[in-house]
């Protein structure tokens, strides 16, 4: 599947194994997004709009997951946590 297809981000997130994420907060975010994907798949009205929102969320979370890929948990330092917190605050504005 191409990175440019509309379903790549949700598919990437939906297929992530739970033990691949080294940051507990990010792991929780992935679980929430997986639940959102399931809900959107069951939605009947406004399904396209809901999928657009979930796709954007998946792109954000997927970018974070990919950027941390291969980093052992013990190497994930406070600076990185601070960066993620700042990213979260920026996205919530």
Task: Give the biggest beta sheet.
Answer: none
Report the sheet-strand fraction: under 5%
Rough shape?
A: elongated
Q: How much is the radius of gyration in Å?
A: 14 Å
Number of domains: 1
InterPro entries: Adaptor_Cbl_N_dom_sf
Describe the structure.
The protein is mainly α and 93 residues long. The protein has one domain (8-91). The chain is 67% helix and 0% strand. It contains four helices and no strands. It has helices spanning 8-14, 24-42, 47-68, 78-91. Helix 1 crosses helix 3 (47-68). The longest helix has 22 residues, at 47-68. The protein is elongated and about 45 Å long. The termini are far apart. The relative contact order is 0.15. Residues 1-5 have low confidence and may be disordered. InterPro entries: Adaptor_Cbl_N_dom_sf.
TL;DR?
This protein is 67% helix and 0% strand. The chain is an all-alpha fold.
List strands and helices in order, with pairings.
Layout: H1 8-14, H2 24-42, H3 47-68, H4 78-91
InterPro entries: Adaptor_Cbl_N_dom_sf
Keywords:
disordered N terminus; mainly alpha; 93 residues; 0% strand; 67% helix
């Amino acid at each position: 599947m191409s990175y440019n297809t509309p379903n790549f981000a949700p598919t990437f997130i939906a297929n992530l194994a739970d033990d691949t994420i080294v940051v507990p907060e990010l792991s929780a975010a992935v679980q929430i997004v997986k639940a959102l994907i399931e809900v959107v798949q069951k939605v009947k009205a406004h399904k396209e709009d809901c999928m657009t929102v979930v796709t954007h969320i998946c792109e954000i979370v997927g970018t974070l997951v990919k950027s941390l890929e291969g980093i052992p948990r013990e190497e994930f330092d406070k600076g990185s946590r601070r960066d993620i917190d700042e990213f979260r605050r920026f996205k919530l504005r």
